[in-house]
Amino acid sequence: MVHALREVHRVLAPGGILIDARPDSRVAAYAERRKRRGFQRFGVVNTSRRELPNDRASDRAIARAVHEGLFKRRRRGRFWHSVPFGSLAELRQYLWEHLRFVRRARWVVDEATRMRYANEPFVIRRAVRYEILERATR
Amino acid sequence: MSIDAAGPVGDVGRHVPAFSSALRPRPIDELAEWGGPALVRGKRVLDLGCGDGRFALGVASFAASVEGLDPDEEVIAAAKKAARKAGARNVRFGVGAAQRLPHADGAFDVVLLSWTL
């Protein structure tokens, strides 16, 4: 990853910027029922243990590139992104088949509530982090 | 702030750890979070790990030029097809890896690693 960042530094013009954006595995995602106004939290969805080392390696690569004087940190932030599902079954299927998250949500509502609203729209709301870095002249 | 994906997910992105375009925010929404179109307006943009060209095509109307690079030949073929369909003349796509970029020094003003690193 650091090799790639060195290449990015090379192809950027002086003062150019690098935008690094990716899911924020340091923050849990949420399974939520979409209500007419707002959302009702149904469960917490953690990042798969397999994905965490990759995320940490990305963090380290950026930190190293900054330490090497390739880039200067300009600004960072986080926003929330919702992935929509037609029903609770669709959401569960998604978790079962995708690698990013653990396969099962940790529910914070009881089973009766899940069954009552099972056919309503749901979302997985997850955090996306970004950082804007400026090419440094070294 | 919270933003939505374009539509229900269905089967798209199945078994893909690095995320299919359909699971991601719309480019214009993502750009707004980072600082808005001014970030790329009139600039030479490189989208590394561009996938099917979702972001590259999404910001093409603001940028001077956009180049998308991805190691996956299939997605680059899809990106080229999407560019032709969109009539985007300032966008180019190519197969390649970030570790060895086929570009001259200082060729870009903005490099994007969106859900890539």
Write the layout of secondary structure elements.
The complex is a heterodimer of chains A (138) and B (117).
Chain A: H1 2-11, E1 12-23, E2 29-34, E3 39-45, H2 52-67, E4 71-85, H3 88-97, E5 106-107, H4 111-116, E6 122-135
Antiparallel strand pairs in A: 1-6, 2-3, 2-6, 3-5, 4-6
Chain B: E1 2-4, H1 27-34, E2 44-48, H2 54-59, E3 65-70, H3 73-86, E4 91-95, E5 108-114
Parallel strand pairs in B: 2-3, 2-5, 3-4
Oligomer: heterodimer
Helix-strand topology string of chain A? HEEEHEHEHE
Poorly predicted ranges of chain B: 8-19
Main sheet of chain B, how many strands, which sense, barrel?
A: 4 strands, parallel
The 3D shape of chain B can be described as globular
Q: What is the helix content of chain A?
A: 25-40%
Task: Looking at this protein, list some descriptive labels.
heterodimer, A: 138 residues, alpha+beta, 6-stranded antiparallel sheet, 4 helices, 6 strands, 41% strand, B: 117 residues, alpha/beta, Rossmann fold, 4-stranded parallel sheet, 3 helices, 24% helix
Brief summary of the model shown:
With 138 residues, chain A is α+β, with helices and mostly antiparallel strands. Helix content of chain A is 30%, strand content 41%.
